[in-house]
Amino acid sequence: MKAVRILTLILAVLAVGVLVIALLLPASGRVERSIVIDAPPAQVFAHVNGMRAFHAWSPWSRIDPDTHYEFTGPEQGVGSRMTWRSEHAEVGGGWQEIVASRANEYVETRLDFGAQGDGVASFTLGPDGAGTRLTWDFRTEFGWDLFGRWFGLMLDRFLGPSYERGLTELKARVEAGG
Questions:
Q1: What string of pLDDT tens digits covers the 178 residues of the chain?
Q2: Could you give phi then psi for residue 168, rounded to 5 degrees?
Q3: CATH code of the region 2-175
Q4: pTM to 2 decimals?
């Protein structure tokens, strides 16, 4: 009986410790990747300023060929929206919509992944020698979601490689004149 009490006490202390540590973890997460593309900003901008254009090079569009996509709103700019649904865990479901756009400089999108949360992604374009430096970032708030805060510690590890694949694909596409 004494062993059960000790085990219960140890488990309780561990559970409280995990919760306390979670409260001390960052309440937000961010992932950022950049690439230099040998093309002027206007040429790069055309590939990030619309959901149909984004879908053409998105690292997630090739994961599940059975994903259902729906595009609404304008072809380019604010209001361009993509909704997707997939049974594949890495793709899932949700929507993404352009909420801000400054020609050849910046595009911001709002994302909603349903039960998995939401976030904001942006593309920032700037000169880099004769080319364009494109920075793609993702930001999310975990608030009081303690599990989300733990997940935030691994956000860069999960999302970063996908961003790198996408930027590499975009670079190849733009530099090939696509």
A1: 787 788 787 777 777 776 666 667 778 889 999 999 999 999 999 999 999 999 999 998 888 888 999 999 999 999 999 999 999 888 889 999 999 999 999 999 999 988 888 999 999 999 999 999 999 999 998 888 878 777 878 889 989 999 999 999 999 999 998 6
A2: -65, -40
A3: 3.30.530.20
A4: 0.86
